[in-house]
Amino acid sequence: MLLLRSSRPIARRRAAHISKYPDAQVISLGIGDTTEPIPEVITSAMAMRAHSLSTVEGYSGYGAEQGDKKLRAAIASTYYKDLAIDETDIFVSDGAKCDISRLQVLFGSEVKMAVQDPSYPAYVDSSVIVGQTSLFQKDIEKYGNIEYMRCVPENGFFPDLSTISHVDIIFFCSPNNPTGSATTRDQLIHLVQFAQDNGSIVVFDSAYSLYISDDSPRSIYEIPGAKEVAIETSSFSKFAGFTGVRLGWTVVPKELLFSDGFPVAKDFNRIVCTCFNGASNIAQAGGLACLSPEGLKAMVETIKFYKENTKIIVDTFKSLGFDVYGGRNAPYVWVHFPGEAGLDVVTTPGSGFGPAGEGFVRVSAFGHRANIMEAAKRIKQLYK
Amino acid sequence: MLLLRSSRPIARRRAAHISKYPDAQVISLGIGDTTEPIPEVITSAMAMRAHSLSTVEGYSGYGAEQGDKKLRAAIASTYYKDLAIDETDIFVSDGAKCDISRLQVLFGSEVKMAVQDPSYPAYVDSSVIVGQTSLFQKDIEKYGNIEYMRCVPENGFFPDLSTISHVDIIFFCSPNNPTGSATTRDQLIHLVQFAQDNGSIVVFDSAYSLYISDDSPRSIYEIPGAKEVAIETSSFSKFAGFTGVRLGWTVVPKELLFSDGFPVAKDFNRIVCTCFNGASNIAQAGGLACLSPEGLKAMVETIKFYKENTKIIVDTFKSLGFDVYGGRNAPYVWVHFPGEAGLDVVTTPGSGFGPAGEGFVRVSAFGHRANIMEAAKRIKQLYK
């Protein structure tokens, strides 16, 4: 039984540091966890919903497994307005990580998947759990029967698709965790074309799309033809600080069909209804508040704050002469860092996200401003 | 692709009735969904937690996937006090239904499961989804490669275990949905013994345990030796009206080992960490309030209310000469009802829970008092 790779190296490194320097204040820019309070307009809506549950008029029991109709409609009109995604294409969930697993249960053990290398570990880990892979090959640090699509500075963090053998499912995260790079429109057109030519399904993870500053697509459905080949999963976690509240969604367009013509959405709906009972009604009330005019404005402010953090981190490493990637369209900075990272700022070793991450660290911009400033100071002291 | 059986017949029947009698007020005692407001001591705690998330001191991001330490400890000390279940054996979740699926992912497609017939449809449906079963056999209304353990009045709703062939996993719900019968201590000793003798794992669903009025075991861990063979799953849904809030838990004792000696809890922990990201922090604050002295008292009141409903339903059917089962230890009444149920009170046809439910209806006691009284009146008018 192989252990999961996810955040173990971080936890171990942190513990080792604390035992070595018990008085030091360790600053962790390692974990991609939000730190700033949720805007009050959103928490007030959740508190009101909680209170209403103790009234006869306000009480409700089981909601629809697919989510509240109003919230599904608000997600469709806010994020997919001109993309012809219907509210019935949207499945509200308790977060993207959970939906990734439900999608893997949908795909089953007989498929072959491809994944960006490096990438968010949940794609590979869930693939292992549902039995799609063969054994871990220690020498190359890869599981068998997964296509690792190398994404490195040399190829602009977009894989050379001509080298990819047949795959059924392509997990693709843009803006990417950990490299922070967003896929351009031309690249995404290329990916959709590849999926069309090969009969693959793309699972597009857009959990960081609101961090995009340039004209990179925020949704894969901006690409013509994507509805026939792509599922999109997203989340309120990194937009509104909902990492602990738990709320996300997955889009499965009715146009997406299995090779026998059966709609994928019908099978996904079956999984959702059998394996899930809807996101918490209080969290859903929060999601609806996020998408109100005040909520949208407040989320923009939160994201702006983390983007300022990102800039501080990018500038710090750049000023020291490091090769720095990401940051512009994502809260993650990807630093070429062949040696050991500084002991009093914890970052995540890039190899934790896949073999192509070797020699890099991921620096997360989620943190209180004072901690980010202190981290920048320490990094400068160590490496100047 | 076979459609799920779950609540479809109910929905269809209801719709048919509404179209036939558009002016009638249909009373649904069909769906097992709570109707009474959540006690204020519990909703206030959730509202407070929601508000605190907009403060620097109160904000928190990702929680532990296994749940807040405090809540795990409170569940252990409240429900498993003298049963030597440790807080680390408890995995907090977004509900029993979701945990049933995660357990099925853990068990995989190679196992054979047994299920009470009739029973809550999620056991069979999730088994079908992970690929444990063979095709549905229409003539006998059963999936292949599942052991349907017949539970009928003739055997006191406890299966004849001597007729059961080898099974790996036994899903067992007590008090049972839909029959409302609770397993006695002697029966449960027998079940644990059977699992020990056959190397099976029992998944004991105790979602209705607080409805028990007699001395039937509320937890399978009351039976000596159960920790070596049983997982227990439970929920705040039917205790505190959390059907929409979403909160439950699963107990996987460290004493439970796979045949190769590997602890089941370690693998389940891996599933939980990969496929789930913890229950909503607001819902967990509600769970903790449920287990406070005031919360426990308030939950007792809610359950008492539904038990009064149950008594009205039982008395109604008994006064008309029907054979009535359940009700004493569960919010479900199981009525022998070979004909068609009355058109203006919707109940659930027993066959929706498995072939042995044929000729019965399940009457749910979840409802406002006025509706229960009106239903009782209509039933009496129809069948007197």
UniProtKB/TrEMBL annotation, chains A, B:
GO terms for molecular function: pyridoxal phosphate binding; transaminase activity. InterPro entries: Aminotransferase_I/II_large (IPR004839), DapL/ALD1 (IPR019942), PyrdxlP-dep_Trfase (IPR015424), PyrdxlP-dep_Trfase_major (IPR015421), PyrdxlP-dep_Trfase_small (IPR015422). One of its GO terms (biological process) is systemic acquired resistance, salicylic acid mediated signaling pathway. Residues 25-379 form the Aminotransferase class I/classII large domain. Its cofactor is pyridoxal 5'-phosphate. Signal peptide: none annotated. Belongs to the class-I pyridoxal-phosphate-dependent aminotransferase family. LL-diaminopimelate aminotransferase subfamily. This is Aminotransferase class I/classII large domain-containing protein. It comes from Musa acuminata subsp. malaccensis (Wild banana). The lineage of its organism: Eukaryota, Viridiplantae, Streptophyta, Embryophyta, Tracheophyta.
